[in-house]
Amino acid sequence: MKTPNSTELIKVGALTLGGHTGLLWGPIINPIDGWVRKTGMVITHLWDIDAEQAEDFAEKHSAEIVKDYGDMVGKVDGVILSDFDAVPVFKHLARPYLEAGMPIFINRPFAFNLNDAREMLDLARQNSTPLMCGSSFEYVKEVEIIRNKVKSGGQITGYLVDNSMSDYATHGVHGLYFAYACVGGGVSRVAYLTPDWKNPNGVVVIEHLGRDGGKPFYGCIQEISGAGTNAWIKIYGQGFIEQFVWWEASAWDRDVFLWLPMLLKMQEMFQTHKMPETYDNIYEKTQIFLAGFKSHVEHNGAPVALSEIGDWTAPTLEPSQYESLF
Q1: Structural domain contains residue 314
Q2: What are the tens digits of pLDDT across the range 176-198?
Q3: Cβ neighbours of 302 (radius 10 Å)
């Protein structure tokens, strides 16, 4: 573990390059072509199932390719596991690092069933492994503004969110995580009404338990697409709180205001071994995601209680190329 004031760069292992690491986060962490260094991290090692993609990244960013997915244990300070295509096997890819107690970021949506989620979280707890599962929407500066306003706003009576998405599993989950970061948990049921989870549009309704003796309240997340829909939230209570989140002025704007805050939070965890949220938070976010998914796929949009998810497994867009490894 490096001390917070260390001038030595934190060594990071890229465990898969899809899901943003190869094209978006990698060039920020390992700046090239005159890019300014924005983090205290450097990707020194990597593994990906696609040998050609791995070789291209390694050459551009001066990183070392390891032979097996678990071979970065002891060689780096933290690991980023990001490929959406690998979600069904996240528990296998992450296992060597969870067992070794190495800080690891696991991309949304974390798991397609609760058994996999529990397996990873139990391993993390047993080995005191710092673990982070996040959406970039959770770490934009506006979230802290909203949280501070919520603290002084009295009882929440409801909220509205919109979120630009493609399919529910990879980008629809942004809105769920954004709402969770702003409002918090204590969720009882989730409903997701849409013609097709693979495309916008749709709506997710989240039922929260009452807080401090208050009544239950409901959140509504519009899963839509198009310009101007990155994220927006309106929270009702004593009056209302409204916040728009925008980062599309330029590619630089997106890098600095969307990607960078979450990367810096990863860096902090890799450096200090302190998690930005609890294991229970990660589990509840996964439950919310899966309850909504099951609502659409199995119940035609009717609410599903978190206690009713059971051993149900969510569908995938395509068969995972990683499953052949296990």
Answers
A1: no
A2: 999 999 999 999 999 999 999 99
A3: 13
